[in-house]
Amino acid sequence: MRVLMALVERAGIACAVSAEVVRESRGTYVHDIATHWHEAREAWGFEDRGLPPMTVVASLPKKDQLVIAQSYRSGCEVIVTNDLQWMRATHRKTIAALGMEAHTPESLVDALRPWLSLWM
């Protein structure tokens, strides 16, 4: 994840963490990402999108509904997680319907691979 964050920093991509992750985490790294997202949103003028259509999100488990709703609302385009349940077809379909993608850190690096040499 630190390698991914270093690439993100060089590429000028904003990253966010869910409020649940910030609450559960005791490390400063997660809080640094939260601060980064807040600053990027202000600098780039990101606005809250409002709540996602709940009929789309309702097919997922309750704990995942909240994370997807927060991601959508905050303007995220990609959700990065180590929870492989998010790679299942039902989650991917729901996330795609909201205009977002789900990746593991490894699959995101693979998706960014064509551009990595530009950021190194």
What is the gist of this entry?
By secondary structure, the protein is mostly helical.
Q: Would you kindly provide a written description of the structure presented here, covering whatever features stand out?
A:
The structure is a single chain. With 120 residues, the protein is mainly alpha-helical. It has one domain (2-119). The chain is 62% helix and 5% strand. It has seven helices and two strands. It has helices spanning 2-11, 19-24, 28-44, 54-57, 62-74, 89-97, 105-119, and strands at residues 78-80, 101-103. The chain has a two-stranded parallel sheet with strand order 1-2. Helix 1 packs across helix 7. The longest helix is centred in the first third of the chain and has 17 residues, at 28-44. It is globular and about 40 Å long. The two termini are 16 Å apart.
Core attributes:
single chain; 120 residues; mainly alpha; two-stranded parallel ribbon; 62% helix; globular
Helix content class = 55-70%
Number of helices: 7
Helix/strand class:
mainly alpha
Task: Give the uncertain stretches in residue-range form.
Answer: none
- The overall pLDDT, averaged over residues, is 77
The largest sheet has its strands arranged as 1-2
Strand content: 5-15%
Task: Provide the gyration radius in Å.
Answer: 14 Å
Report the strand count: 2
How many structural domains in the coordinates? 1
Q: Separation of termini?
A: 16 Å
Order of helices and strands: HHHHHEHEH
> Which overall shape is indicated by the principal axes computed on the Cα atoms?
globular
Largest sheet: 2 strands, parallel
